[in-house]
C-alpha cells in the first residue's frame, strides 16, 4: 500500500470538508454579529454605529423615479410639483422596469458595506441595507409588491461565493415588508463575465437573455433586489424577462446606485 493512500479518519475528504464548513460557519457567525462599526471602527452591536447610521443613510437626494439616478435641482424645476421625477434617459427610452428605490450613491464610505457584503460575507450589512430600504419604501408612493426576488447569480458564481449577496438583502427586506420572497423563481441561465470590466454597450449585450423565469409571475408586481445598480443593464434585462413572463410591474430595490456610468 502506498503511503499516500493511507488516511486517518480526520483526514478524509468528508472530514476536511466538514471542518472547512464549520470554520466558515464560525467566521460567518462572527461577521454576522459585529462588535465594531463597519465604517468607523467604534464599538457597536449593529453593523453601523448610531453616528454613522445617522450620517450616511438616506442622503436627501432627488432621484429619477424609474432608475434612481440622482438629479440636479435645475432639472427638477421644469417638472410639475408632486409629479414623479424622471431623468432624460428614462424619458427618452424607458427601461423595462417601472421603478427604482435606492438608499444612497455608490461611493465612500457606504461602498465599503457593499464590498464587505459581497466579498467578505458581512451578512449584517444585508440586514442594514434591508432595514433602510424598508424605510425608503414606506416613505415612497410605491404599492407593496406581490413578490420579492433577488437578482440571481449564476450557479458557478453561487457555488464559488457560497451565498448571493442580493438574497442577503432580499430575504430580510421581504420579511420586514411582509411580502413573499423567492430566490428560485428567477435564474441566471448564462454565466456573464464580470460587469465592472465591460463598457456599457458590451454590458447590454452581455446580459441580454441571461435570465429565465420558472414560476408564475403573471399579473404580479415583482420587487427585484440588488446590492449595487451600475448601468442598470442587468436590472433592465431581468425586468424584460419578468415582463415577458407576464409580470405587471417591476420595482427595483437597490442598496447603492452609481451616480453615472
Ligand atoms: Zn461608525
Ligand atoms: Zn431615470
From TrEMBL:
Entry-linked InterPro entries: ComF/GntX_DNA_util-trans, PRTase-like, PRTase_dom
Pfam families noted in UniProt: Pribosyltran
Residues of the Phosphoribosyltransferase domain: 170-256
Protein family per UniProt: Belongs to the ComF/GntX family.
Protein name per the record: ComF family protein
Annotated source species: Caballeronia jiangsuensis
